[in-house]
């Protein structure tokens, strides 16, 4: 209070500073020091081989040049094959992933499922969300062999974690009164889901599915690096052969398709609502 | 939104409502038909490209893998602290660099703050390109250019983050209240002053939240960058897989799992504090 | 002081918001601008400081013609016109003091304002203004922690820190309860008298307009339909501005025995309106 009076007095005489975000100056100093020390330590751990960078600079220029003259034709068969695999992988994995995410999501909603099921579903979600798709792809490639099937299963698994978590949060947030109203009519559990829960979460579910479709396509371009098929494999080979013009073509195709899906999903979302 | 409700055309569509339902019903059926056939077609493509012999073998392979992973090589963890530190640095420095570049980009891309429509489309181009290309692909490109190392990883994370942060931030900028902007403009303030007084305070919480969220995602992404040589714990993972040292792979997994959980916890806490 | 000549605003959609409005407001006069929703009141006010660009016509502030100014000159001219808004238009996440100081932005450079380095006399002045509107204890509070009436006071202090020659006031009471509305209007009126400020107050509430304005300007469908003293307002003129309505009824409160004769009711309306302004 006295501090406030002092500030008032100083403001009256024309001296006023914005009150700091963190009151205690010792905290402020400690925080600033901690950030500074971290930045110094972290940048110190970055070792840069400048001769290698200088060497790479010309390659970098070559690569930029390749973007101006992408080569779609000479490896068109590879690109086409990779693209087809990627697109099919994206679609099937999204569909399968969402179908599986619905039961997992319901199971992971605390207000819908008993505790053991809740814990089980939550742990599936946690595992699926923690590991990057590529890591999961490695395991599935070992299990199922090279090719798009491993990729599809990877993406479906990742989709389950993503969708089920958001779905569970949605279900936990639904309007309890509607659920009670249906429960009061003596409806079964399935009827409860169909009448009270589904209408409330459906619009967002559709929006999220489209968003996930977009993500899955982008991811499908990566998991090819570890042998799970798709356009990523094409990209990987072209880069390791230093065929920058083909790589540029692949990247441009990816950008184009992502832009297209984004535009389309915006359109569909408007149509659904 | 409410403007739409009082449009005179609303009455008309009410009258045609019945007609449209039957047509819509047909369209929905057609949609399902097309969707299901597309799905089956896609499934066939995948199945044609799959060696089903291997797939039948999958359960045995999986069990075998699990057995070989099972006692994790705990002793190996001592050699993982440095790569883990590198991974954290890649994520943090990369995020920092990314948001520094994304910040002006978002202001140029938002409809209400862009100086010119042409500049806006250029900024949107940057954002879309950055978003479309996964950080692992950025890392692949940068490793061929800069050589393997942490630097390539940091830049890859930064380049991918521009699009993510830029997109969410420019959407936040477009959603600000217009009246404070009017008020500050009316005082005779310059463009930059309007930005710093009327726009910035309104988007600051969103900006902080988005950045922390991206940092959390980047921790996860940076665990795999080593697979293509861009530093971090992924390098060890790659080495372990190539030598089929599955007990080492499992300890790396455990470490990644713990790190990501901690970062998610921190991110959620910080985001809550900002809102 | 402020002169509008044949001011016209046509929106790109083709809607004509203002049609050839001419007005003159001498120094120190408080003019209330009344009219139905969508009559162009807000557009008129915003055309003055060019938050909305007028399509045709001229605006003179003193000797300066505003519609032809370059953006730098326009910023200088805007400093001379303080604006007060309906939804207060404060920056919620900044402190009350910063909100008031933002009235000085037109006089200062970017970096000084970015680091909040305002000259000592300006801070002193801001503090005095906050004292004047009764909020000096709130300088370090965030603007979103205040009540509606308090926020509008901050908005008024911000406009005054510009040391304006005229106030442009856009529906200052539309979001406030009746008591606070009167307090705010009284405050604006007092400040205008104290500082010899002219003001255009665009307002919904006819009674408040009559109470606190020196002059009433009626706008309907973008055209000037009335310009006179508050005492002149009667049922006929209100009909001219707002359209057909039983004006007597509206100004009556709790009177059970209704007088049905139109000529009587008209007189009656005038009487009650007068009574309100006493």
UniProtKB/TrEMBL annotation, chain A:
According to the UniProt entry, its GO molecular function terms are: ABC-type phosphonate transporter activity
Any keyword Calcium?
no
Q: Which GO terms describe its cellular component?
A: plasma membrane
Q: Where in the cell is it found?
A: Cell membrane
Q: What InterPro entries does UniProt report for this protein, alphabetically?
A: MetI-like, MetI-like_sf, PhnE/PtxC
Tell me where on the tree of life, at the top rank, the source sits.
Bacteria
Gene3D superfamilies, per this entry?
MetI-like
Name one matching Pfam family: BPD_transp_1
Q: For this UniProt entry, which segments traverse the membrane?
A: 27-46, 91-113, 134-160, 247-268
Keyword list (alphabetical) reads: Cell membrane, Membrane, Transmembrane, Transmembrane helix, Transport
- The coiled-coil segments of this chain are none
Every ABC transmembrane type-1 domain range: 83-265
> What's the protein's topology in the membrane?
Multi-pass membrane protein
Record's family?
A: Belongs to the binding-protein-dependent transport system permease family.
Query: What name has this protein been given in UniProt?
Result: Phosphonate ABC transporter permease protein phnE2
What lineage is this protein's organism placed in? Answer: Bacteria, Pseudomonadati, Pseudomonadota, Gammaproteobacteria, Oceanospirillales
Automatic annotation (TrEMBL), chain B:
> Predominant location of this chain?
membrane
Q: Which Gene Ontology terms cover its molecular function?
A: ABC-type phosphonate transporter activity
For this protein, the record's PROSITE patterns field holds: ABC_TM1 (PS50928)
Q: What is the membrane topology here?
A: Multi-pass membrane protein
Q: Name one GO cellular component term.
A: plasma membrane
The compartments listed are: Cell membrane
Transmembrane portions of the chain: 26-46, 90-110, 136-159, 194-213, 225-245, 251-268
UniProt keyword annotation of Mitochondrion present: no
Family matches, as SUPFAM superfamilies: MetI-like
Q: List each copy of the ABC transmembrane type-1 domain by range.
A: 84-267
Keywords for the protein's UniProt record, in alphabetical order:
Cell membrane, Membrane, Transmembrane, Transmembrane helix, Transport
UniProt similarity note: Belongs to the binding-protein-dependent transport system permease family.
Q: Which PANTHER family match?
A: ABC TRANSPORT SYSTEM PERMEASE PROTEIN P69, PHOSPHONATES TRANSPORT SYSTEM PERMEASE PROTEIN
Q: Mind telling me what this protein is named?
A: Phosphonate ABC transporter permease protein phnE1
User: Lineage of this protein's species?
Assistant: Bacteria, Pseudomonadati, Pseudomonadota, Gammaproteobacteria, Oceanospirillales
UniProtKB/TrEMBL annotation, chain C:
Q: Where is the ABC transporter domain?
A: 2-246
Q: Tell me the superkingdom of the source.
A: Bacteria
Q: Which SMART domains match?
A: AAA
Matches recorded under Pfam families: ABC_tran
A cellular component term from Gene Ontology for this protein is: plasma membrane
Among Gene3D superfamilies, the record links this protein to: P-loop containing nucleotide triphosphate hydrolases
User: Listed GO molecular functions?
Assistant: ABC-type phosphonate transporter activity; ATP binding; ATP hydrolysis activity
Tell where it localizes: Cell inner membrane
Q: How would you describe this protein's topology in the membrane?
A: Peripheral membrane protein
- What keywords is this UniProt entry annotated with? ATP-binding, Cell membrane, Membrane, Nucleotide-binding, Translocase, Transport
Q: Which SUPFAM superfamilies match?
A: P-loop containing nucleoside triphosphate hydrolases
Q: What is this protein called?
A: Phosphonate ABC transporter ATP-binding protein
Which species does this protein come from? Nitrincola lacisaponensis
């Amino acid at each position: 209070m006295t501090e406030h009076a002092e500030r008032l007095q100083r403001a009256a005489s024309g001296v006023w500073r914005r009150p700091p975000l963190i009151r205690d100056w010792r905290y402020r100093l400690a925080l600033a020091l901690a950030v500074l020390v971290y930045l110094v330590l972290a940048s110190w751990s970055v070792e840069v081989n400048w001769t290698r960078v200088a060497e790479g600079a010309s390659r970098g220029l070559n690569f930029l040049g390749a973007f101006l003259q992408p080569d779609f034709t000479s490896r068109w068969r590879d690109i086409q094959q990779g693209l087809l695999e990627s697109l099919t992988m994206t679609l099937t994995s999204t569909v399968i992933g969402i179908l599986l995410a619905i039961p997992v999501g319901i199971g992971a909603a605390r207000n819908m499922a008993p505790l053991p099921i809740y814990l089980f579903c939550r742990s599936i979600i946690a595992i699926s969300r923690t590991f990057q798709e590529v890591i999961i792809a490695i395991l599935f490639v070992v299990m199922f062999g090279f090719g798009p099937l491993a990729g599809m299963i990877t993406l479906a698994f990742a989709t389950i974690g993503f969708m089920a978590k958001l779905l569970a949060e949605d279900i936990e947030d639904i309007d309890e009164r509607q659920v009670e109203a249906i429960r009061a009519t003596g409806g079964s559990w399935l009827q409860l889901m169909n009448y009270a829960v589904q209408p409330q979460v459906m619009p967002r579910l559709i929006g999220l599915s489209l968003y996930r479709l977009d993500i899955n396509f982008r991811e499908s371009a990566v998991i090819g690096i570890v042998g799970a098929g798709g356009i990523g494999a094409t990209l990987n080979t072209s880069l390791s052969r230093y065929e920058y013009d083909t790589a540029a073509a692949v990247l441009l195709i990816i950008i184009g398709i992502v832009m297209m899906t984004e535009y389309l999903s915006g359109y569909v979302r408007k149509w659904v609502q | 939104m409410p403007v739409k409700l009082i449009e005179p055309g609303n009455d008309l569509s009410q009258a045609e409502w019945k007609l449209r339902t039957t047509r819509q019903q047909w369209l929905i059926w057609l949609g399902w038909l097309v969707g299901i056939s597309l799905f089956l077609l896609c499934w066939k493509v995948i199945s044609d490209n799959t060696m089903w012999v291997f797939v039948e073998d999958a359960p045995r392979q999986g069990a075998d893998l699990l057995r070989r992973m099972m006692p994790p090589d705990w002793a190996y963890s001592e050699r993982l602290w440095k790569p883990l530190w590198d991974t954290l640095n890649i994520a943090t420095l990369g995020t920092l660099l990314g948001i520094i570049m994304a910040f002006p980009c978002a202001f140029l891309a938002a409809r209400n703050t862009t100086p010119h429509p042409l500049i806006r489309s250029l900024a949107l181009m940057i954002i879309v390109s950055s978003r479309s290309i996964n950080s692992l692909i950025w890392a692949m490109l940068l490793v061929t250019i800069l050589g393997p190392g942490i630097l390539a990883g940091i830049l890859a994370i930064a380049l991918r983050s521009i699009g993510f942060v830029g997109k969410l931030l420019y959407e936040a900028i477009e959603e600000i209240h217009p009246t404070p902007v009017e008020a500050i403009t009316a005082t005779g303030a310059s463009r930059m002053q309007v930005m710093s007084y009327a726009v910035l305070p309104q988007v600051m919480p969103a900006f902080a939240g988005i950045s922390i969220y991206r940092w959390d995602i980047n921790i996860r992404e940076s665990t795999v960058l080593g697979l293509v040589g861009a530093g971090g714990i992924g390098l060890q993972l790659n080495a372990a897989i190539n030598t089929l040292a599955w007990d080492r792979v499992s300890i790396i997994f455990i470490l990644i799992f713990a790190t990501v959980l901690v970062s998610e916890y921190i991110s959620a806490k910080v985001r809550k504090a900002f809102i | 002081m402020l002169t509008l000549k044949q001011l016209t605003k046509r929106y790109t959609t083709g809607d004509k918001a203002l049609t050839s409005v001419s007005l003159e407001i001498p120094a120190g006069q408080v003019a209330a601008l009344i009219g139905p929703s969508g009559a162009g009141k807000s557009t008129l006010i915003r055309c003055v400081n060019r938050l909305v660009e007028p399509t045709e016509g001229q605006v003179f502030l003193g000797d300066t013609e505003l519609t032809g100014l370059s953006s730098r000159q326009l910023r200088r001219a805007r400093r001379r016109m303080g604006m007060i808004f309906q939804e207060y238009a404060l920056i919620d996440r900044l402190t009350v003091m910063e909100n008031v100081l933002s009235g000085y932005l037109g006089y200062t450079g970017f970096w000084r304002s970015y680091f909040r380095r305002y000259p000592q006399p300006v801070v002193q002045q801001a503090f005095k203004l906050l004292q004047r509107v009764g909020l000096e204890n709130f300088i370090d509070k965030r603007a979103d922690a205040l009540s509606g009436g308090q926020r509008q006071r901050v908005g008024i202090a911000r406009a005054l820190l510009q040391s304006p020659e005229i106030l442009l006031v856009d529906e200052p009471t539309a979001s406030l309860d009746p008591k606070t509305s009167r307090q705010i209007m009284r405050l604006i009126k007092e400040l205008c008298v104290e500082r010899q400020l002219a003001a255009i107050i665009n307002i919904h509430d006819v009674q408040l307009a009559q109470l606190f304005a020196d002059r009433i300007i009626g706008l309907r469908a973008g055209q000037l339909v009335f310009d006179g003293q508050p005492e002149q307002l009667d049922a006929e003129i209100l009909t001219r501005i707002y359209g057909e309505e039983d004006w007597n009824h509206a100004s009556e409160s709790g009177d059970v025995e209704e007088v049905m004769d139109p000529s009587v009711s008209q007189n009656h309306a005038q009487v009650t309106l007068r009574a309100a302004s006493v």
